[in-house]
Amino acid sequence: MTEPITYLFVPGDRPDRFGKALTSGADRIIIDLEDSVLADHKMAARDAIAAAALDWQNVIVRINPVDTVHFEFDMSLLRSVPVRMVMLPKTESSDMISRVNRSLDKKCAMLPQIETVKSLFALQDILHADRVDRVAFGHLDFALDLGSSTDKDSLLYARSQIVHHSRYAEKPAPIDSVTAEFRDTDTVSAEAKAAKNLGFGGKLIIHPAQDLPVKKGFAPSPADIAWAKSVVQIIEKGGSGALAADGSMIDKPVEIRARHIIERAGKIS
Q1: Cα–Cα distance between 137 and 131 in angstroms, integer?
Q2: Which of 113, 151, 230, 241 lies at a C-alpha separation of 20 to 30 Å from 124?
Q3: Among 99, 86, 76, 106, which Cα is nearest to 32's?
Q4: pTM score, two decimals?
Q5: Where are the domains positioned within the chain?
Q6: Which fold has domain 6-218?
Q7: pLDDT by position in tens, the chain (length 269)
Q8: Distance CA 187, CA 249 (A)
């Protein structure tokens, strides 16, 4: 089973958007209590989440950082709803994750965001923390912390490290950060494809219009699908072992890649 690809943010103080987000086609929605909600709106946002009829299987709640005055109020909310996954912004250590785990009276999957240089250098500690599912990159806050540009070349090292560390920790491929230009679907799709080529497995989105362009970017190309089908067909006809096809060798890694392409193509279609 493949992991979710698109994760759609919706502000916690906009309950009128919850239902629309859940029917947008996005694989998961993230109801946000952090950056998109003003401080004096956070209590109303918590009340809105508590009162909403939500499909909690597909809902993630992004809480406020553990070192803020809002954290304990967020924990009180999460103890009152059947949340299954929590997004932790600005996660810089496994201790931060442990604090969330201790504050909850249930087992929830954790989705830490890598948003600072300290986060980057604590990746193995974070990835091996209890209940961590996978990690997500937050490039805007990361660039702010680093003092760099937000363009892809400036953040290539950070993105690559997140992918490599996730693989080393045997976690699902990480989730790439948002694309701010949500009306430019070509840019959205191109950035999704670039993330896929680096080894990311999904992407955060800020508008329902980004869902299909992101999935298009993560989808295998027609040429890749045709290649994968031909590889599987040859293997199924010829049995196990290394086989020659179109001048190339087919061994186990090639077979696994081919089957993964077919699986991903089926999910996205």
Answers
A1: 18
A2: 151
A3: 86
A4: 0.90
A5: 6-218, 222-268
A6: TIM Barrel (3.20.20)
A7: 578 999 999 999 999 999 999 999 999 999 999 999 999 999 999 999 999 999 999 999 999 999 999 999 999 999 999 999 999 999 999 999 999 999 998 899 999 999 999 999 999 999 999 999 999 999 999 999 999 999 989 999 999 999 999 999 999 999 999 999 888 999 999 999 999 999 999 999 999 999 999 999 999 888 888 888 888 888 887 755 555 556 677 778 888 888 888 887 876 66
A8: 36
